[in-house]
Design goal:
heterodimer; A: 369 residues; alpha+beta; Butyryl-Coa Dehydrogenase, subunit A, domain 1; Butyryl-CoA Dehydrogenase, subunit A, domain 2; Butyryl-CoA Dehydrogenase, subunit A, domain 3; 3 domains; two-stranded antiparallel ribbon; B: 408 residues; four-stranded antiparallel β-sheet; 12 helices; 10 strands
Chain lengths: 369, 408
Amino acid sequence: MANIAAEDLTALTDSLHRLLQDKSTETDVRRTMETPAGYDPELWRQIAEMGVTGLIVDEAFGGVGAGPVELERVMEEAGAVLLCSPLISTVLAAGLIQALGDEAAKTRLLPTIADGSKIATVALTGAKGGWTEDGVSVSAAGAGDAWSLTGTASFVTHGQIADVVLVVANAPDGLAVFEVEPKAHGLAIKPLPTFDHTLRLADLTFEDTPARRLVATRPVWDAAEEALDLARVALAGEQAGGAKRALEFTVDYAKTRAQFGRLIGSFQAIKHMAADLLLESESATSAARAAARSLADGDKNAQAAISLAAFACADAFSTITATAIQMHGGIAFTWAHPAHLYLRRARADAQLFGSSAAYRERYLEALGA
Amino acid sequence: MADGNAVTDADLRDEVRAWLAANWTPLPARQPGPGGAGWTISPEQKAWLEKVVEARWAVPRWPTEWYGRGLADAQARIVEREFAAVGAPGTGQDRSNLWANTALAYATPEFKAKIVPALLKSQVNMCLLYSEPGAGSDLAGIRTRADRQGDHFVVDGQKVWTSGAATADYGMLIARTDWDVPKHRGISFFYCPMKQPGVEVRPLRQITDESHFNEVFITDAIVPAENLLGPLNAGWGVLQTALAYERSVMGDGARGPRSGVAESATEEPLIALAREAGVLGDPVIRQEIAKSIAYKKLNALNNARAKAELGQGTSSSIMSLGKLAMSRILHEEARVRTLILGAGSLLEGKDYPRAEDANFLTLNAYFTSIGGGTDQIQRNIIGERVLGLPREPEVDRDVAFRQVRGNT
């Protein structure tokens, strides 16, 4: 996967940072998360113009042609402000289309995903939410141009707002990827109530739903893993960015809140928590960036690096946001304070694409144990 | 720092390579000293260091008048990479040699001329005379005194946790030279000659049943005035430089098992241990192993990122994070080793090397979590210097040291 020049990356993250500081404030996040769509179409258009939605899409199909390193940095910015957007779903879908090698599908789907005019997602796990090959829960029947799907896919990210729905399903000849019209006959899309209000999830139930089978030039689960790896790196970046920001506003608070005639940050009880969290935050950033670099380089240890980032970033984000509430005290127990929004995002991110425990197991396997 | 005759990266690389090709031959391995204390340096190693220093590769970042080349950090790293590529030691001392860096920055011209080359060539042995029985975490509370008498100082007091004291030629000493000012402002920093009647060294037995450290009893010891580093009573500032180098060394690594019974060279030690113990399939143990390995790997990634981002400016704050991380790594690894062994960890001795290692590592982890500043002190440093949190109120901060409550 390609990389863009370092100065271009800095320019991109700088302008995204400025845009998000302006358009994804806490007030914006709170307003957007209460809308059914769960994202701000105008802001989505603006980040698309910057190239963010097409970041990992090949230039030949209207994208930027960047890779995991750039994706991870962009997601740090998005995570820092709890951006409400279907970015992660876009990464998964574009990644899957590119990994499959279906040239017609690339031409048909990638340009509109890259320019942000269509939102795409991938349905690939069942009710257990493991995002593993044996967790694929939809079956396909048919042949040639006439296929139909049956079964329920769960935890489909942004499934209720997607224009392009890709489904990983078990066909008689093995795993395959299908494209389904959101309005197709026999498709029921049930939005799920999410603990993280900035996230959108849906169950997709198929009953003889007509579907178009995409060509795969390689084993389908390998392609799915390649797309998932991009999503894992993206998520790790989001977690690292969110963790860093949550620690920043918590430390800032400890420098201004006084009790017993002292700023609370001068108490070792608070200071030591902050120091421990800094170690977690820095480690998350290091892990996310190292995973991105290792995936970009096609390093043989990439699987270990990605698994490490997956659980280290998930655990860091969860620990930091949970401890942040404790360090603030009562103020952060109120709905009006943003700390719980970060905790909610951290708890959501810690489950997406697999649990920390599952990634620790993958990590050991990657190390040969 | 450039000396006007800037060299290109390629020319520099060629020059180092050519020099190494002409001069380097592998040396015999270094051996631990008696009782595992310190390291002995062979004549071959000394001869090699001499060559490296004279050829100006030992401290390439330093100025040309002090054995250096005035190179920027990026170019000095080229030199380091070339040395590392052939396994040759001796360069990079401008980052790693705490003794020489401290002396270069603060010693008097007369003393510097004498001591710096000797330090770079490892011709003198050194030790640290900082901590005292009554001044551990609160290092500025030292009560060893140095009183000026003519052209020298007379030193009295007791130091502790001194490694290498028995073989040292000099100790980097902090002593109180003014008792009527607050504690940080009455301390001076010396190179104290160790081989004199007023300095008595006694080994200290550790919880690991080893003796890597000593107590040093100092009675009317003589320190020439030219051995003062930095201005009189400004020793606390000198100490901060020296401590930063020491912490950077501690954050970079620590001792492994001591049984000497080989562990797998290709596999993570915890994985190999669990495989050997037949518990690698235990899902609980697998989770714990993954966490423990991850702590170690994350610290390595942090160090790599800090080095890449900071270039030369060795920041004590980032290194403080590394030391705190290392402390967790060591305690956690020891805990997981114990978990893997289960009841096997009840035993000790040479017939039970895995238990010996797990138990040793459990105890020796405190070397890192207490030594060089406890974890709790490190958290204060990180909180205050990195995160900018307000300081803890200090009751002894603006009081003449004479009036500060001590241990009685």
